[in-house]
Amino acid sequence: MDLIDAIKAIDKTHEDDVLKRLTTVWGDSLKEDEVLQEYPRPQFKRESYINLNGIWEYAFSNKEIMPAAMEGKILVPFSPEAILSGVERQLQPDETLLYKKELKGIRIPDADSRVLLHFGAVDQKAIVFVNNVPVGAHLGGYLPFTIDITDSLEKSEDDPLSLFGVLTVFVTDDSDTSYHSRGKQTLKRGGMYYTAQSGIWQTVWIEVVPKLHITAYRIIPDRDLAHVNIKIFTNGETKVKLSVKAADNETLIAEVQGDTVPVRDEGKRHSPHELGRYSPDLEDGHRSSHVYSCRISIPKPHLWSPEDPYLYNLEIEAESDKAESYFAMRSFTRQFDEQGNPRFFLNNKPYFLNGVLDQGYWPDGLYTAPSDEALIFDIVEMKKLGFNMLRKHIKIEAARWYYHCDRLGMVVWQDMVSGGSSYAKPVVSYLPTLFPDVFGRMPDGPVNYRMFSRGSADGRKEWTQEMEDTIKTLINVPSIAVWVLFNEGWGQFNASAATINARQFEDGRLIDQASGWFDENGGDFRSVHNYFRPLEVIKDKHKRAFVISEYGGYTCYIKGHSSVDRIYGYKKYDSPGSFARAYRDLMKLVTENLKAKGLAGAVYTQLSDVEEEVNGILTYDRRHNKLKLAGNHKATKR
After folding, report:
1. Which residue from 196, 177, 139, 175 is spatially nearest to 421, judged by alpha carbons?
2. 394's torsion region: left (phi>0), alpha (psi -120 to 50) or beta?
3. Contact at 8 Å (CB) between 121 and 144?
4. Confidence class of residue 543 from pLDDT cuts 50, 70 and 90?
5. How far apart are CA 621 and CA 25, in angstroms?
6. pLDDT surpasses 90 at 438
7. Which of 241, 367, 443, 620 could be cross-linked to 317 through a Cys-Cys bond (beta carbons 3.0 to 4.6 Å apart)?
8. Strand order in the sheet with 342-346
9. What stretches of 9-161 adopt beta strand conformation (E)?
10. Is residue 455 a contact partner of residue 447, using CB atoms and an 8 Å limit?
11. pTM of the complete model
């Protein structure tokens, strides 16, 4: 496939196609009563846990009309468009999807306890009822939210500490017909844009907490790599006790305790750098009112790296509320190497980022991995190939994916999710791809808002808030090294201001301000995409590290393991053998030649095929690694 053909196919729609029913081995073995049962939030773990995944009732209806009855069963948390949901129907922008689930077996220890309902993510707008009483709502398809449902639950006549009720969730999804963040979802699938999904797509669960409880926390390793700064937010005045333990969870490293102070007084007690910009907003539907802050010395710190992903354990106590967490001692910085090249530094040492693009799509689950083992498989397979970084592309993952990156050792570049109105493809895709030096430099300020699909002031405000909320949600994840703010001009605006905003969190992450093109000369990286021209290292006059944040895209179609027979990618190979040879030559060029010339990192496209985009190392169903198929065309299926 040559350059012109690839450009033409970028957004060519094929909505009339019927995708082949590909499944994964994990989807094939899935049991309805054992769907994603693992604790969904490993960095904030309590003993109380009721998993609500499994069979729910559902019904579609016109937005203006309540359904007369439920239509059938849906397997949560798979979106109705996904094979594993058992529904396989697209939620349209003029429709409502209604979910219903009986809540029972909720036991509280005392009358003052609170019951919290957690949603990992619901795409895109959700209104939640308990016993026909509205308890909360959420807009945005990628971030978790929590609602206190205690007062809407009913008490058992025989036992007032036993609660029950009926949970209903109304969902609507504008998909790509509005300015809301949507990533690569589209109602008219084709090329590098994929099937839109909707509804509940991450774990739903309940926990019971004391009336006075921990609401949020922040764990940031100090730049000196000898201390860790910790903040614990609560919804009332209390004493907090913290215990830091080694990875064996037995050896005590440090123990501190102290009283919380009102949040409004926190700024008087600490410097702006130490405080950062962590807004103590809800974790449980209530604003945090108090905070305890400390700086703990870690003697002889065991530093985290992909080669040695060491994690410290943290126990948190606030009166009768107890939670478990973990953290890592590591630093991510941009510094100059001995040759004067700006580089990515891990723990104050130059570290070459050999990355791969990870879309996070599954043929049977779409946005939702069919199992925890499936998430682990992707990470481990990439580590086996020598990759030490994953760029999570235009998607926010379930918390367990980040946990596995933390414990298995994989640096993460986290993209913000793109939005905006319908993209002007010639401006943001075709011309910059063909002529990046000419058409990849358009300023993203007010004069070009509409050109960048950002004419809506509400849309710009919403994206800015979601960027902040994304950082708040993921701020404690040890493996995240870089925030990627914009990608290829999709809904880009005021990138320089967004960079300043992101830096105010003082979380020790680096910033890729504009990945691909429309560089505003800010952030820590000169970040280019290069699929069609000879790869080279470009010296940046602003002394930023140079990264090729997308390259490769080599395609190799494997019969029986692709969603469609049509091929989309950037360079076609007819056999696994020729694909493997070209891949290895390219990787050698990048990791040896260009690295020696000052390249700080590179991101190969991509981890797996997605629908008709067959430029993955793995097939879409994850049953084959194309590199391993070379010379073994009858390789055993997974």
Report:
1. 177
2. left
3. yes
4. very high
5. 8
6. no
7. 241
8. 332-336, 342-346, 349-350
9. 50-51, 54-62, 72-76, 95-107, 114-119, 122-123, 125-130, 133-139, 145-148, 154-155
10. no
11. 0.94
